[in-house]
């Protein structure tokens, strides 16, 4: 209970802060105004009425010239940003843990924050009765709880870690299965990107038109108020209505346009009818009556840009890498995701169109702004027609195989084929110098006898097909038979060198055998005479002598 009570107080505090900011601005303008219409009570009731108008509540203006009450339903969208942010912060802070503080459940925090905020809202609705802008009770009962609950739910979801849990059980099974198979997160991002592109394009159209009609805009601003306090109030109101003008510009670019009363509609084709335009600077940007010009038709670039954004955000996830078919989505899944993004963009555009328009009075002023269902339908058509084919086209471009349709795997001249396996170079046979890099062979080089085992050219062809030699210029020249012959010659030289090394072993010299000498010769010889020397083994024989037969000694033995 203490945690829920604290959450309830947080909701009431958020509502009080919103009222306090508006009260500060309005009371400052009231004090500085030289001719205030009412006292401080009337100014405070105006503050409460503007705070309820920021939530989408329709106000009723009693002081009209005709005496009949007139509704005021065009709510400045920028006013609604502050209350929504305050409720979001209150719900998110209620679930944050702190020292000595209990944390409530997510559902309890949601209802407690919403209850505290609505309690202040009910008091503000009652307080506006009798003021210059009283709140319509039925409109307050519809818009105030809806805006508060949505902002608080987003805050609770953020505080819980942004879970992506299963869909509720009341969703049909087929719908849950289809959403599970598609990329819902990608579709939501692309839808948000498309809606932001529409808003940005609409704001650009409004800015260009204001510059184009700068004289009328200045005159309207000066005629609304003479005092500087009144001009500041007009400037602040125009600034708060800039998001509304951006939505109107987006509807103009989509084609349906926007209503300027019950009998006038502004579209790129023409401004038909008699518009009921009050004096206001932003309304000075409305095109002149008559048919549209090519400058007005150029506004269709806004929905085209939205479709391109949807296609781009879809294909970023469908084909994140160029040429990667394994990780790319299928065609059906890509198209379905882009279609879901277009549907989401159309829903967001319809909601913005509904919030940006409304009545400004009775009679001809009962309808102002774009028609929400026409604007949403036009956004769906444009984004689907541009986004789905664009996503499929970019996906096909990213997963393509470069050159597959014309090259068929052939290499460019001067380049090696991607599928070719390089063959290591074979050294030249022994005795032949290796050619220098880049040197062209001579007329006699590279010529060899025809290989008996090589196949002959077919149909009288004398060589390789023209252009094929460039693709194989990294292979060694010569036939396989020549390279095999070189290897055999190298092996033969190696064997011969081994044999010559074996033959160079030292050969023993035969020792001469002594022979007996005759007795007469030994006695007649002097005792001191030495026997003649035997000729050397490598000395040639003298004249008249013949070499000794093999196996006999070549000289005499020494005694």
From TrEMBL:
One Pfam family cited in the UniProt record for this chain: DUF6350
Transmembrane segments: 12-31, 68-88, 109-128, 140-159, 191-212, 232-251, 258-277, 297-315, 336-359, 371-394
Record field: compositional bias (Pro residues): 424-440, 507-517
UniProt superkingdom: Bacteria
Basic and acidic residues: bias regions: 481-497
Annotated region described as Disordered, given as residue ranges: 410-559
The keyword Nucleus is assigned to this record: no
Keyword Transmembrane helix annotated: yes
Keywords in alphabetical order: Membrane, Transmembrane, Transmembrane helix
Biased composition (Low complexity): 535-545
Protein name listed in UniProt: DUF6350 family protein
Lineage: Bacteria, Bacillati, Actinomycetota, Actinomycetes, Kitasatosporales
